[in-house]
Specification:
This protein is of the alpha+beta class and about 140 residues long. About 40% of the residues lie in helices and about 25% in strands. The chain contains three helices and five strands, in the order E-E-H-E-E-H-H-E. It has a five-stranded mixed beta barrel with strand order 1-2-3-5-4. Helix 2 runs antiparallel to helix 3.
């Protein structure tokens, strides 16, 4: 994943970078006709190139890490719920018991994801790879 942004401030080896969020229509607002507005977001990125506040930069993150993050947040809880619900229901427990147990296991899986995120947060930070030349 590669994005362009502007460094807002330096944070001791990290930078806060302002990036424009992508729209669902592919950023071609003239052809879309939708009423979406341009949104900007703030991202903390590793500052490996010595960028300073006001610099236009390119930030990058491995696609593998982006996909792993999406899996942990969106897919894993659904999988845990479905597998535990149907697994418990196959043991001839009622639907209420299966649903309750599956909900509890899903909350536990989410908790494990949160703990994993806190311990490996720096592994999932994008990195500034280039300072753009201002012309």
């Amino acid at each position: 994943m590669r994005e362009e942004g502007v460094v807002k401030r330096d944070l001791n080896g990290l930078c806060e970078v302002i990036v424009r969020r992508k729209t669902a229509c592919g950023d071609n607002c003239a052809s879309c006709g939708g009423a979406c507005k341009m949104n900007f977001g703030s991202v903390t990125a590793k500052n490996a190139v010595g960028a300073k506040a006001g610099d236009s930069v390119i930030i990058e993150m491995e696609s593998k890490k982006v996909l792993l993050s999406a899996f942990l947040v969106y897919i894993l809880p659904i999988l845990v719920f479905l597998v535990s619900f149907y697994g418990i229901q196959a043991l001839d427990f009622g639907g209420t018991a299966s649903g309750g147990a599956a909900a509890v296991l899903t909350v536990i899986a989410f908790g494990v994801t949160v703990i994993y995120d806190r311990r490996h947060k720096s592994d999932f930070l994008p990195e500034i790879v280039k300072i753009e030349e201002n012309t």
